[in-house]
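Query structure, 405 tokens:
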């Protein structure tokens, strides 16, 4: 009789990632073949870009740069990149890696996994925050992903614009306090709403907002009034997390709750809505909600399809069909017009509006050594919010960069 197999977590350790074990097998084969034919020392330049956004997307938010730095630091490469949190368009290179291919080729899978996943999450968070700039957006989505990567997802959601994250470890790693309310489990195990709300109020420290979950046993209006009567002025808000099977018209439900609370003198009580929230819901509910809890739509967003392709070998422009060869720079003007040029070409003014431009790609690693400061997640988030405010004020956002060869 064979021994029972012991269960395990199927996780890549930090050491295995840094060794290059997390790669596709053909990169290992390519390294072996290039060494065999004496081509392992050829100087290669490759850039990361997206030639395809999801339908309706005119921009994306770059995320994951810090982890790519961690991956490539100490290797014989130069790395140029846009800042983390930078908005970018289709076709624009967001990162360039230059060095012997044998020194970084096996890391392509890991580089793209980091940038593509982080960027997709941050972009979705930014799109939701764009519709709710004056309302809070809390990320509740770590239950949607493997626990090993929850801090990564929390960070990407936060830098994309979310005001807080519920994950304890993720919040700690980005230097923030976790944000959340209470689960249905608390009310169900306590036995009734009033007992659960009062116990929560008496147990939690004063800096935790008293937000009562108000849809467990009764209808939302009735439970919201009950919570307001139970906690009075200490009640910060009510959270409506009605499941889809009972939801009906969520806007009308929130309006009814707001009307009833106001009539009873509870105008200070805020309304937070969660449960399957996506961009369209934020638009529809914006006027009747004070904040949103968002999970799955951010944790499992549409993908920003980033690719890494060779664009130079031994300083000579080359690429596969369908790609633009040569090292590049991206310039941006204050009106958010972008232009892509060869790296050797210096652009001073926007060809579209004549305003001064600035380059977006700068060196971050020189021969394996980090040459810039790593910004905090809050600093990155501030950059994203500035862009969102600007986009919100624009009549139209041009989704295509100008190509200047």
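Result returned for the query:
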């Amino acid at each position: 009789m064979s021994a029972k197999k012991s269960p395990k977590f199927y996780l890549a350790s930090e050491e295995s990632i840094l060794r290059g074990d997390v790669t596709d097998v053909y990169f290992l084969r390519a390294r072996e073949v290039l060494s065999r034919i004496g081509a392992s020392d050829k100087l290669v330049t490759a850039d990361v870009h997206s030639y395809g956004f999801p339908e309706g997307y005119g921009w994306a938010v770059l995320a994951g740069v810090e982890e790519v730095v961690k991956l490539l630091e100490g290797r014989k490469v130069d790395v140029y990149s846009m800042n983390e949190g930078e908005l970018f368009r289709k076709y624009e290179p967001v990162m360039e890696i230059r060095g012997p291919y044998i020194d970084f080729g096996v890391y392509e899978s890991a580089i793209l996994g980091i940038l593509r996943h982080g960027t997709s999450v941050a972009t979705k968070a930014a799109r939701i925050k764009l519709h709710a700039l004056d309302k809070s957006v809390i990320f509740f989505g770590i239950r949607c992903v493997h626990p090993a990567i929850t801090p990564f997802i929390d960070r990407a959601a936060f830098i994309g614009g979310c005001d807080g994250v519920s994950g304890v470890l993720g919040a700690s790693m980005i230097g923030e306090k976790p944000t959340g309310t209470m689960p249905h489990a608390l009310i169900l195990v306590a036995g009734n709403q009033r007992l659960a709300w009062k116990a929560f109020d008496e147990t939690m420290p004063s800096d935790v907002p008293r937000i009562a979950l108000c849809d467990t046993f009764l209808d939302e209006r009735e439970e919201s009034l009950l919570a307001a009567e139970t906690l009075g002025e200490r009640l910060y808000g009510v959270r409506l997390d009605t499941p889809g099977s009972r939801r009906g018209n969520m806007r009308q439900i929130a309006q009814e709750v707001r009307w009833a609370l106001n009539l009873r003198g509870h105008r200070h009580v805020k309304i937070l809505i969660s449960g399957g929230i996506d961009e369209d819901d934020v638009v529809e509910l914006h006027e009747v909600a004070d904040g949103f809890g968002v999970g799955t739509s951010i944790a499992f967003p549409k993908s920003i399809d980033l690719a890494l392709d060779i664009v130079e070998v031994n300083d000579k422009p080359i690429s596969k069909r369908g790609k633009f060869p040569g090292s590049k720079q991206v310039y941006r003007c204050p009106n958010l017009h972008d232009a892509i040029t060869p790296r050797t070409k210096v652009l001073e003014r926007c060809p579209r509006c004549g305003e001064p431009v600035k380059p977006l790609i700068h060196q971050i690693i020189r021969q394996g050594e980090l040459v810039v400061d790593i910004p905090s997640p809050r600093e990155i988030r501030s950059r994203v919010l500035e862009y969102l405010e600007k986009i919100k004020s624009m009549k139209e956002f041009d989704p295509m960069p100008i190509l200047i060869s």
